[in-house]
Amino acid sequence: MSEPRDEKRERVPVENDPNLGAVPESVPNEGPADADLTDIGPDPTPEADTDVPDEAELAEVLAEAGIDEEVAEAAASEREIAVEVGEKIIEVKAVTVKFGGLTALDDVTFHINRGEILGLIGPNGAGKTTAFNAMTGVYKPTSGDVLLEGKSIKGKKQHRITRAGLARTFQNIRLFGEMTALENVVVGLDARHKTSVPGALVRSPRHYREEKSAVERGIALLEFVGIAESANTLSRHLPYGSQRRLEIARALATDPKVLCLDEPAAGFNPAEKDQLMDLIRTIRADGYTVLLIEHDMRLVMGVCDRIVVLEFGKKIADGSPAEVRADQRVISAYLGEPDDDAA
Amino acid sequence: MSEQTPVRTTRAVQLTESREALGGRKQFLGGWRRRWNRMARWQQWLFLIIVLAAVYYLPVANPWLITTEPGNDFPIACFQMAVYALVAVGLNVVVGFAGLLDLGYIAFFAIGSYTAAFFTSPDSSLIHIPYLWTLPLALGIAMLFGVALGLPTLRLRGDYLAIVTLGFGEIIRILATIIPAARGQVGFKEVGHPPGTASDGQPIFSVSNGVPWYWLAVTVIIVILLLVGNLERSRVGRAWIAIREDEDAAEIMGVPTFKFKLWAFAIGAGVGGLSGALFAGQVGFVNNQKFDVATSMLFVAAVVLGGSGNKVGAILGGAIVAYIPLRFTAIADYKYLIFGIILIVLMIFRPQGLVAAKAHLLTYSRLALDKVSEFRAARVASEQEKAAAAEAAKGVPNE
What we know:
By secondary structure, chain A is α/β, with parallel strands linked by helices. Chain A has helices at 2-8, 46-50, 55-64, 69-75, 128-136, 158-164, 181-190, 197-202, 205-225, 240-253, 270-285, 297-303, 321-326, 328-335; strands at residues 88-99, 102-113, 117-121, 143-148, 151-152, 166-168, 258-262, 289-293, 306-311, 314-319.
């Protein structure tokens, strides 16, 4: 699987702006609108996130995250990953979602390129999670369409969307509490299993084959996110950070083309956020496309290749972290418009 | 890992593992559970064979204190316990595994009983088949009814599903009353029984002789347990537990929830039908009087009492619910009161039921356990190495 990976690395690197990490001086630092914005500090690793790593850098990223390359290999997808560079993998086309009279999402269009980390940000109530739910089939868009690899997934059943290759985690952790960490991951792996109920009843050869590979891959995935030692612990007994990681492992287990993370850093301290950033980069390096919804600006700016900004259900910006950061509409969305007399 | 742990010792690893063997919670008979998990496969089999021998021997032994005589014939009491245990095993698939509260389970029991009666009783005008054939037939027909009930209703959740199933239970009972072919209270006499005649010319499976019936029922339970166990340790069991824990999350993780809920319903219904047919055969008489809502509640009580989501618990719960009114005939009239009080006390002190064990959901669980132990051992080794290296580094400047 390492060979196809190389080709993908040839994507045009986003321009590496040395000033990217600095807070623009025009932006007042103490914005009451969103405390997270004050977090915009120097990027922890500006090279690694704006450039797509080649093989050597990949090894470095993996080492940084404390993950053995072999482990990453074992945890990686078993299916052949198509590697056309920069091709659109998900297209959200003019999607509108209405709840009665309320328009939660108004004519939003954006796309995700294969192999990139796309950030979806916006103030509270901007429609981030609604956009997410419209994509993953929780809500059916009132109008518009969602395409996964050119095929419409609008209105499909949720488990079919997952099997088509779109996996997600939850903002509020939703693990299967009475199952162990490993069993949680194996539920995700089952999305690719084909044993029928009668087959399981009489234990067909396929059942044995799938069960065995499930345990092996499940353990590898847990090792990949760094909680293999807790494989046999009930997931509700896991510490908070491990639960978040388990959610990611479970979503990865469904072998997605696109992994959607809904505020994965909620409740994390800065050190944990750094570890999470490393993990997200490793996931991308392993051949997954990542859509990230996050409040924490430092994390979003540090890890995303491109950022889409929503406000009041409308898209107001779309571009590289540097572009988005300099965008006047984004600044005013987060910090409010300056008063006329103050200007 | 986000949390920094101190250097782990082998002892600490052992402690964690023993805690995990308990499924992370304190347990009734917890010591037994741990010991059981530590046993080798052949030891477990040996233990099971001894227990099975004792179970088969039970009605013949008729032990003092446990016996229900003189009030009730003990072998027949044993058979009734076995039937209730089988019902609980089936209902446990629906309520315990998939988390679907089915308050009309008696309907499937009734369907099984009537299937046996229709095809074997001389009172029925249908074609007659040997009694043993009605067992799989009852299972199949009950399954069909399960699917028929499940298809429109399994889109409902929680309380709504409970109310609909409750209604279904009543519908079947009332149909048995008003449809002339079902013969209402008159019912069907001389329901069939398995073949075989004893030396004295009496059939082996007679109404008055409970022992062979009990053995038949226990054998059926063992077969069903093995099959349900196979399902539990497969993607089917995992899908059921996932649905019980969080249906939306399960759906989003790629579990076709409706399909697996329907399977749970059908399998539960099938086992209910099977137990109904067994019951009808032993009693030899089927009418509309036995299939009331109260019995349906008793079935749910059996599952909850034993430990929802646990096969051993279901068997124990079913057996206890059948046994207590038979053993203590003086209080049999108050059985609902007594079970009500028992359940309330249980909910306060032990909400997980008498036997609360986590379902086994992996065919290769031992492989997983070994792998995790490997990880832990490797971690202990590397940490001890690091500690030793740190010691050495500290030592050098001093010298």
